[in-house]
Amino acid sequence: HQEYRMKRQYYSETNERLLTYEEVCAVTQLSQATLRRYVQSGRFPAPIKPNPSGRAVRFRIQDVRDWLDRL
């Protein structure tokens, strides 16, 4: 099941690729705890909720790219 979850793609209303915490951690080489701290302190762009009534959050790929470019 995990393999399927990793391959599934998420997109926002603008058809933009959305990343999970797990995917962002892999790209940024940050732990989930560090990423969550960065988000909470404003050092990393906040995730969005693809489904307002759901619990899941996703990061816009462009926000992640922009953050990486500023390093």
- Rounded to the nearest angstrom, the radius of gyration is 12 Å
How far apart are the first and last residues' alpha carbons, in Å? 35 Å
Task: Please tell me what the overall shape is.
Answer: globular
**Sheet of most strands:** 3 strands, antiparallel
Tell me the strand percentage band: 5-15%
H-E order: HEEHHEH
3D structure, described in words:
This protein is mainly α. Helices cover 46% and strands 10% of the residues. It has four helices and three strands; from the N terminus they run αββααβα. It has helices at 2-7, 21-28, 32-41, 61-69, and strands spanning 10-11, 17-19, 59-60. The chain has a three-stranded antiparallel β-sheet. β1 (10-11) and β2 (17-19) form a beta hairpin. The longest helix has 10 residues, at 32-41. It is globular. The chain starts with a helix and ends with a helix. Residues 1-7 have low confidence and may be disordered.
What brief labels describe this structure?
mainly alpha, 71 residues, three-stranded antiparallel sheet, 3 strands
Give a brief description.
This protein has 71 residues and is mainly α. It has four helices and three strands, in the order αββααβα.
